[in-house]
Structure formats: structure tokens, C-alpha cells
Prior knowledge:
The chain has 225 residues and is mainly alpha-helical. The chain has six helices and five strands; from the N terminus they run H-H-E-E-H-E-H-H-E-E-H.
Amino acid sequence: MNTSLTNAARLFGAGLRALLVLTVVTGIVYPLVVTGVAQGLFPGKANGSEVKADGKVVGSSLIGQSYHLPLKEGQETPAPDLKWFQGRPRNGLGTNTVNTQYDLILSGATNRAADNPELLRWVKAAKAAVVKDNSVPGHPVKPSDVPADAVTSSGSGLDPHISPEYADLQVRRVAERNGLPVARVQRLVDTHTTGRTLGFIGEPRVNVLELNIALKDLEGGTAGH
């Protein structure tokens, strides 16, 4: 009997020591080491890829943002503020997921087939809006000019990037709305266009948040001259 109690006590003590050691190692030491290494080598990514403007955090380079006018009485969805570059679809396709236009509740795609009638209506409506919004006097936009990412949401619904083609499509409208030369706005897009990763992974892209921050700086610089 005494031997059994002694063995039980020894096993209990060994188990308790193992629990305490593993708790310290995996619950304290390991997280601190990983956090320290991440902060030392990749501080930007470790802190959420924050984007700052005027000394303040204004978003993340990994998550898209909306650029809308204030919601007016009677409106169900706010109108886009066309002085800024717009991300992927804001109305139709921007709200056809549980995540409604970058409201960070859930992320996800539409889960509708390519021939789904409702999806086709959304795409047509989005294309018509892009044509209307980006046509300026003397430079109308044709439906064939509209790239796919202008009328479809990404798989997550949170994509912060647009294609260079969609950014280029918006240049004249943004220049007109801000009273800027088209060439300067085009240079801004070219400067903020990122190529394929390692030269062959993914597609060229433009981060909309970073582009609009640069646009604000450009607008401020122009106003000061």
C-alpha cells in the first residue's frame, strides 16, 4: 500500500514538474523568443504592416479600405468619393459577402458560379459604374477598357491592391477631380506599381491606400506652390 502511494506521488510530482516546465517553455519563453526575433528582423510585418501618414497609423498595407462620401439620407450605400483612387468593387460586389466592403467581421468570396445570373448582374452594374465614373470630357471610357479586377471582388474581399490597368483607368478622373496634371498623377501610379514577386510570382499591383496617401501629399504640395 505504501509502495503504491509512493509511486503515485512520484508520478504525480513528475507530471506536475513536466507541466510547469512545458508551460514556461511553450507559454512564456517560446512566445517571447518568437516575438523578439520578429520585432528584430521584421518589425513592420510583426506589427501588422501598418501604414502611417502624418505620424498616425491610417491602415494596413494588407487590408483594403473604402473611399466613400458621407452617407446621405435615404441612401442604402454611400457614393464613392471620386477624388480618390478606388479599390475593388465598392457597391454591388463589395457587399455580396458576409464581409461588407472591408467591415472586418468575416472575409470570403461570393461563392457564386461564373454563370450565376445574380453575379452577372453585379458585374454588368459594376462595369457600367466604372465606365460612368471614369469617363471625363474628351476621354470616354469604353466597356472593353474595364479590367476584371474593377468589377470583381477578391477571394477574401479584403484585397488592398488593384491592377496597374485599373489604376491607369482612374488617372484622368483623379487628376480632374483634384486639379492636378494628368502626367503627374500617372507618374504617381507608375511609382507605386509593384512588379511580380521575384520576377515571376503573382501579378503587377498597386496598393490603393499607399497610392492615395501619396496623392494627398502631392495635392498638398501643389496647393502650397
